[in-house]
Amino acid sequence: MKRRWISMRNKRKNQGHIVDLFFTLSLFCLFAASALIVVIIGSDVYRKTTANMEENYATRTALSYTAEKIRQHDSAGGIYLTDDDDGNTILVLSDNAGGETYLTYIYAYDGWLCELVVKEGTGFSKEQGEQILEVDTFSVEEEDGFIRVTAADSGSAPVSCLLHLRSGSASSIES
């Protein structure tokens, strides 16, 4: 009888260990599944954020670049707007260096934001400009002492930047 009682006690003891093992293993599997779900969700959020940043990079950079150029040349007679043969507005920035006047043209051409720096009186050709950023649309408008710069790249809505000119207003010159 004593033996039977000891073997039943060992059997119950083994069953207790099996339940403990099953509980521990279940808890580990639950933790592993939760960690995997968090990693999958995190990677999806990262992928979407990266795609959004890449999508808007060109537009934001084009606006920042143009805004900084306008701020650098914000003086009387330093900023002009002119139209090309296609009716697109070109931003012209005037700068004096070494007694010479240089003009910086910022414009959209063939899907690119371009810049061309030439000595005043030199002919202007859109093909000569340096490609800066790829943009689908780029426009510059002046009204009441403000310049609105608008840009958009493929797949994104146009974004605008409104700049107040401390020098008054941009001059208009004929192309």
- Give the class from helix and strand content and strand pairing: alpha+beta
What is the oligomeric state here?
single chain
Mean model confidence by pLDDT? 85
Overall geometry comes to: rod-shaped
- End-to-end Cα distance, whole Å, is 115 Å
Total helices: the number is: 1
| Series of H and E elements | HEEEEEEEEE
Q: What is the makeup of the main sheet? A: 6 strands, mixed
Overall number of strands: 9
Helix content: 40-55%
Strand content: 25-35%
How are the strands of the largest sheet arranged? 5-4-3-2-1-9
How is this structure best summarized?
The protein is an alpha+beta fold. The chain has one helix spanning 2-72, and strands at residues 79-83, 89-97, 100-109, 112-119, 130-134, 137-143, 146-152, 159-164, 171-172.
Q: Can you walk me through this structure?
A:
With 175 residues, this protein is of the alpha+beta class. The protein has a domain at 59-172. The protein is 41% helix and 34% strand. It is rod-shaped and about 95 Å long.
